Amino acid sequence: MCFGEGAIYWATSDDLISWAPGALDTEPMYEPTAGSFDRDLVEIGTYPVLTDNGLLLIPTNGAVRHVHDGGVDVDYRYGQSDIPLAVAVHDPTTT
């Protein structure tokens, strides 16, 4: 499962009831990118998709805040991150 707002993390479960985080809070799998559409906020979008060529496509939502005298405008957009499956999935039986 992927989760998070501000950064994206992952978790695993054997029974889909109890979940264990896949990494420390200091090690997100994706976080805001300076100078990008998601520099101020990143959150998980819809469910991840495994492509035919072995990439894990993770849809994300992102935002940039524009502060001005009249307040704050937020530019909210959709994006995606492509992660090679060998990097995205850790098989504990192989280590």
Task: Walk me through the structure.
With 95 residues, the chain is mainly beta. Helices cover 4% and strands 44% of the residues. It is built from one helix and seven strands; from the N terminus they run βββββββα. It has one helix at residues 85-88; strands spanning 2-3, 9-12, 20-21, 41-44, 49-50, 55-68, 71-84. Strands 4, 5, 6 and 7 form a four-stranded antiparallel beta sheet that branches. A three-stranded antiparallel beta sheet has the order 1-2-3, with no helix packed on it. The longest helix has 4 residues, at 85-88. 11% of the residues are buried. The mean pLDDT is 81.
Shape descriptor reads globular
**Rg:** 16 Å
Q: Major beta sheet, specifics?
A: 4 strands, antiparallel
Amount of helix: under 10%
H and E order: EEEEEEEH
The N- and C-terminal alpha carbons lie at a distance of 22 Å
Number of strands: 7
